[in-house]
Structure formats: C-alpha cells, structure tokens
Amino acid sequence: MCDFCGCPAIPPFDRLTDDHLTLAAVADAYAASGDELDLDALRISWGDHVAAERPAVAYLARELDLEELSEVGRGLDDRVEAALAAGDGTALVRAVADHAEGYEFEIYPALVLQAAEEDLADAARCAAGTGAAA
C-alpha cells in the first residue's frame, strides 16, 4: 500500500485499509477452499466494509468537489459485487485486489491530500455511521 499521503494512519482510512487486508485474506481462503462458509464470510466482510467506505468517500468527494472519485470507486465496487454474485474465487481475488489498489493508490490519496482536518473527522463519522455535517 502507498503511504505517501499517510492515509493508513488517518481515520477512517486506517480502518478501511485494514479491511482491505481482511477482504484479501478471506477472498484467498475462498478461492483455495471453495467453501460456501468462506464466501459467506467474504460477503459479510464486504458489506461491513462498503457500509463504512462509501459514505466516507462520498462525503469527502462531495465536500472537495471530486465526485468523479465516487464513480471510480463505484466501478471498483461493482466488480467485487459481480464476482461475489457469481461465486468465482479467482475473479474475487482479482476484484478485491483491484478494489484495494484503486482506493489506496488513487481515491484515498486524492481525498486526504486536499481535505482539511475537520473534513476528515466528518468522514470518520460517516464511516462510523454517526453522520457528518450536512
């Protein structure tokens, strides 16, 4: 992962980058085992991850007038969701890796480098599901 902008140490990106590692490990486990329980675990982990990531990214993108980043993220997310629906382990491993790479090297840095501390704090609240300034 890139550490140019420091996002792995900045809430909410600290949690979200950790989630990427978890998602990759569970996708690898499913690809190796083909076990439906691993796939279920990946679906749950993915659901929790996007429930935090999407509102945080959308909030910052809107505040910074970088809404095209939300669209880039949606495309990455759609690939993971398609692979989850198909249950294709190989496609899941690749889609999760592409998701993590796209967010950690493109989306997060673009947001973090331009965001004020109060915007990052609001994004962390969005990720936690406690809202943010309107």
Elements, N to C (H/E) = HHHHH
Strand content: under 5%
Largest sheet: none
CA-to-CA gap between the ends?
A: 31 Å
Taking Cα atoms only, what radius of gyration do you get, to the nearest Å?
15 Å
Q: Which range best describes the helical content: under 10%, 10-25%, 25-40%, 40-55%, 55-70% or over 70%?
A: over 70%
Structural class: mainly alpha
Instruction: Tell me the total number of β-strands.
Output: 0
Name the overall outline.
Answer: elongated
Q: List the uncertain runs.
A: none
Q: Helical stretch count?
A: 5
Structure, described:
The chain has 134 residues and is mostly helical. The chain is built from five helices and no strands. The chain has helices spanning 13-33, 36-63, 68-86, 89-112, 117-128. Helix 3 (68-86) runs antiparallel to helix 4. It is elongated, with a radius of gyration of 15 Å.
Q: How would you concisely characterize the structure shown here?
A:
This protein is an all-alpha fold. It has helices at residues 13-33, 36-63, 68-86, 89-112, 117-128.
List its traits.
134 residues; 5 helices; 0% strand
Write the topology of this structure.
Layout: H1 13-33, H2 36-63, H3 68-86, H4 89-112, H5 117-128
